[in-house]
């Protein structure tokens, strides 16, 4: 089976109740659930949560919540891989064979069904363990600066001070939306950011981390602007 797992614990600190806070008229998690269902990629779309209210909201919007995530996998330090491994192991114990799993973040309102389909196709067509969303940096990272302990500016790579931007290698970063992976890779805890992963490239205007109230406001502005254009 192909499984979508949406991790959504209840203990968000910087934006309280972030996963179910209303975003452009819907609980934030609803956007991810709807994209997963519309993609028709999955035999089942589940939410892995430790929170009863999040579970209720997830069910209202079409996801399954077949188990409650244990407390030891719901703290601030639990990574993505153990959460996905737990979900796979739960289904295995129920006699279900899981082949491919997509970890889809609950705070990814810009994700589309088409993106998820592309990710599935990349995973299936490539010799890889994972396929995940990435986007390009808007500015050359080789010309990044730091502010040191004396409040002065330093370049990370001063050798590139005179290098033209167009002559520098383009760099990319995790878009923080979804991670397709083979079940055995999740179970073995294989590293996602490695040569065994393939990129699913997204445009920069559809990528926004949502970790602070400022991020949230910017994401809503972008989303509303994109909706009007559509």
Automatic annotation (TrEMBL):
InterPro entries, sorted: CMP-NeuNAc_synthase, Cytidylyl_trans, Nucleotide-diphossugar_trans, PseF
Keywords of this entry: Nucleotidyltransferase, Transferase
UniProt GO MF annotations: N-acylneuraminate cytidylyltransferase activity
Gene3D superfamilies: Spore Coat Polysaccharide Biosynthesis Protein SpsA, Chain A
The protein's name in its UniProt record: Pseudaminic acid cytidylyltransferase
Organism of provenance: Stutzerimonas degradans
């Amino acid at each position: 089976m192909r499984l979508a797992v949406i991790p959504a614990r209840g203990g968000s600190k910087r934006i309280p109740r972030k996963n179910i806070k209303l975003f452009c008229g819907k609980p934030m998690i609803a956007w991810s659930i709807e994209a997963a269902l519309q993609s028709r990629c999955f035999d089942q779309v589940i939410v892995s949560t430790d929170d009863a209210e999040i579970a209720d909201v997830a069910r209202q919007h079409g996801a399954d919540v077949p188990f409650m995530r244990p407390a030891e996998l719901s703290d601030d330090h639990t990574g993505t891989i153990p959460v996905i491994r737990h979900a796979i192991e739960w289904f295995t114990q129920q006699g279900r064979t899981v082949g491919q799993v997509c970890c889809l973040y609950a705070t990814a309102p810009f994700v589309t069904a088409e993106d998820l389909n592309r990710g599935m196709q990349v995973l299936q067509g490539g010799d890889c363990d994972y396929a995940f969303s990435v986007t390009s940096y808007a500015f050359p990272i080789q010309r990044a600066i730091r502010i040191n302990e004396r409040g002065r500016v330093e370049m990370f790579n001063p050798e590139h001070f005179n290098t033209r931007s167009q002559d520098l290698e383009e760099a990319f970063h995790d878009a923080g939306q979804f991670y397709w992976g083979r079940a055995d890779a999740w179970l073995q805890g294989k590293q996602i950011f490695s040569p065994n992963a393939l990129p699913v490239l997204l445009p920069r205007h559809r990528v926004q981390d949502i970790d602070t109230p400022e991020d949230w406001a910017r994401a809503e502005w972008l989303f509303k602007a994109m909706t009007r254009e559509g």
